[in-house]
């Protein structure tokens, strides 16, 4: 038992010595942000809300914000990639795209327009339709979360450049 404990401590010490550390949440230098241009109940806007640090408050009016995230385009494309000779779908391609820009409270653009896109292929089977529906929802959730993390990192970088 003592030997095992010693090995664990040795391993932890080696990891700490090499500079390894878990990824920390992205620090965003803004306390109030407005999300505009999103459809009501947008899944992408919800993903952004989840990824923003807890201390960042999302406000409704741009005038109350320090910065706005303006969605120029927030779309989901679901296309058939493969089908059988009988016309049964075998594979879908899911594409989530967010085109956005940051703006100050007055609406003046801060930097250019950015486009982020995630794409995944999803096999499909009529016999497992419910399971595939759950798999699709999980894929879409992860794709949107990844885009939201990228947006938050860009928001943090925007704060570093002096707004």
Layout: helices, strands, pairs:
Blueprint: H1 2-17, E1 32-36, H2 43-51, E2 57-59, E3 67-83, E4 89-103, E5 109-123, H3 129-160
Parallel strand pairs: 1-2, 1-3
Antiparallel strand pairs: 3-4, 4-5
Helix pairs in contact: 2-3
Protein name: LPS-assembly lipoprotein LptE
Family: Belongs to the LptE lipoprotein family.
GO cellular component, one term: transporter complex
Question: Summed up, what is this model?
Answer:
It is a lipid-anchor. The protein has 163 residues and is α/β, with parallel strands linked by helices. The chain is 35% helix and 34% strand.
List keywords for this structure.
163 residues, Double Stranded RNA Binding Domain, five-stranded mixed sheet, 35% helix
What would CATH call the architecture? 2-Layer Sandwich
**Biggest sheet, open or closed, and with what strands and sense?**
5 strands, mixed
Helix count, DSSP H or I runs of 4 or more residues: 3
The secondary structure category is alpha/beta
User: Residue-averaged pLDDT, rounded?
Assistant: 86
> Strands across the major sheet, in which order?
2-1-3-4-5
CATH H-level superfamily title = Lipoprotein like domain
| Low-pLDDT stretches | none
Write down the CATH topology: Double Stranded RNA Binding Domain
């Amino acid at each position: 038992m003592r030997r095992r404990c010693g090995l664990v401590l040795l391993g932890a010490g080696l990891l700490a010595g090499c500079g390894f550390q878990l990824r920390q949440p992205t620090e965003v230098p803004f306390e109030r942000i407005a999300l505009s241009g999103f459809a009501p109940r947008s899944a992408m806007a919800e993903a952004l809300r989840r990824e923003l640090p807890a201390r960042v408050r999302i406000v409704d009016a741009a005038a109350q914000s320090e910065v706005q995230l303006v969605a120029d385009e927030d779309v989901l494309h679901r296309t058939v990639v493969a089908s059988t000779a009988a016309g049964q779908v075998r594979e879908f391609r899911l594409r989530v795209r967010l085109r956005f820009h940051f703006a100050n409270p007055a609406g003046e653009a801060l930097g250019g327009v950015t486009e982020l896109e995630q794409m995944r292929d999803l096999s499909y089977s009529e016999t497992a339709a419910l399971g595939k529906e759950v798999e699709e929802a999980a894929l879409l959730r992860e794709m949107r979360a990844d885009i939201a993390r990228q947006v938050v990192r860009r928001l943090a970088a925007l704060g570093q450049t002096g707004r």
